[in-house]
Amino acid sequence: MRRTCSAEAGKEVRIDPIEVGRRRSKNERRGGSMREVLSRMAAVGADLGPRLRGGAVTLLVGAAFGFGNPAARAQESPTPSVTNQPAAPPATAPAAATPPASAPENQTEEIVVTARKRRESIQDIPASVDVISESVIKEAHITQLDDIGSRVSNLNIFEAHDNSPAVVMRGVGSFELVQGVGFYMNDVQLFEGQTVRPMDIARIEILKGPQGTLYGGANIGGAIKYVTKDPTSTWQNEVTGEIGNRKTLNAAAAISGPLADKLGMRLSVYDDYHHGYIWDTYHHETIGASQERGGRLVLLAEPQNTTEVRLSFNAESYNSQNENLQYKINQFNAPLQPYTADTYRYSVDDYFIPSFIRKIFSTTLQVDHQLDNGLTFNSITAQFWSYNRGITDFTKKPIPLDLLFQNQDHRVLSQEFRLASAAHSNLDWLVGVFVQRHKTDITNSDLNYNGDPVTLTPTTCCGPNTDGTLPFDYDVQNKVQKQYAVFGDATYYVGRWQYELGLRAENYSSDLHARNLPSDGSGLRIFAPQNLSANKISPRASIQYKFNPGTNIYGTVARGFQPGDLSEQNLAITTIRPETATSYELGVKSRLPHGAQLNAAIFLVDYKDRWYQNLVAV
Length: 618
Known about the structure:
Oligomer: single chain
């Protein structure tokens, strides 16, 4: 059993040598230092999460407690506290960068979030939601994915060796197989680039537990939402720079202001460079350097007083030698042994030097319109494109045996329409439809060598090619996934009571075309196209009771799922059943004197049909 010691308010210390070792090596690999590890171990709190596993069902039990001082994060809210009132008017716009007016002494300012796709106080949401504000992002120097997990309890998050995120929230998540925990830029899901530096961000919202009702499949463990800044009404600019050990050089800049009376813009860019420090014992050189650069342009137009049009462009480029590196225990003595979680050195003996290139481009068009009857209409149109090219030494040996190429491209188009109520005295509601098409192209190929670094002739194990070229094998998977969903959520207020009911009905499909060329000379194999389709329901219900304007208790039941899929493995196409998770949560949220908060929650997660990956020796 792994024990963690954490605070729901956002800090964490882990009593786990495996996690500490893994995080240290990762931070060092990204050019950090022991400062990040020590800061993680300096927090206090309490969290226990024993896991009871039986067959295909896993029960996850836990509790979390947190103290917070909203006054330290008051800039998150655009308005002072509104007590004993229903939720704020529905809205989906990202938070503005303008700070609020200062509140009277000892008056608590609300932290306003959009976790339920409408603006409301975090204290009024009957669920566990953490917020990392802009000030915390800067002061804690949150620059990479690992840093988020260090500030949130029941969240295990790190960047894996293949430069993809591995996230587990409350014991549910990806386990490096599927996304599990969804990443969002405002209300648009990210399928790549979750590891991008949180630049020019107003806040990060962490939604714990299944989020299928409002956010759909692939959010079985929860969701992490980056809320970006809007253009400002006056011209503002900011430039930052950093230098550090291992030739670290980071720079960022942002400029924001009005282009016209009804048009504003915000442009932010960054460029980070970290020199490698991994020693390759075969080539006798340092590898592991990485460079990441990107930018975001936001245009905000107000053609009329009741309409806002927000157009954003995002681009990111990442180039690194960190691709499936495996550290070693001993640095000079042969043969080198694989590392363990507690014992390793920063050295490898790969014959082929790895590399990884990722390029991302996305566009989002969001229209928010206030209708004459007080209703709010929202339209979000999004496009996402990513390009990944990875090269690594598959056998991890100091002789040329297998050079592996890993290519993966994503093309995503989505459309969401929502209609929501204005602020009512007793009822808030939201309904919507969602359509998405996600195309994934994966190509993995190997060049096989004979192990002789002098001649580099073709290997004899798999039949040398008669023309003298290197034998190779490859597999190609072309997949198209589609989602169609209708959803709704309503909250009814009766005196001190609040009742919520939400439901999402979703149809998903997956079509796979695959072909494989083994290196044994058996010839090209083309698989018959396979497809699957299924329907899923994701309900949510909660009850909340307010003892007074500052204290409430709640109970929430929510279900989420990871859509089933098709996968080509070992020369066969396999159908994978969907994962499902049902969460039961009881909690209390309260405001204490002098602006402090005390939040506590206990939860039980019924986790079924969890996906596993087994390595089989052949």
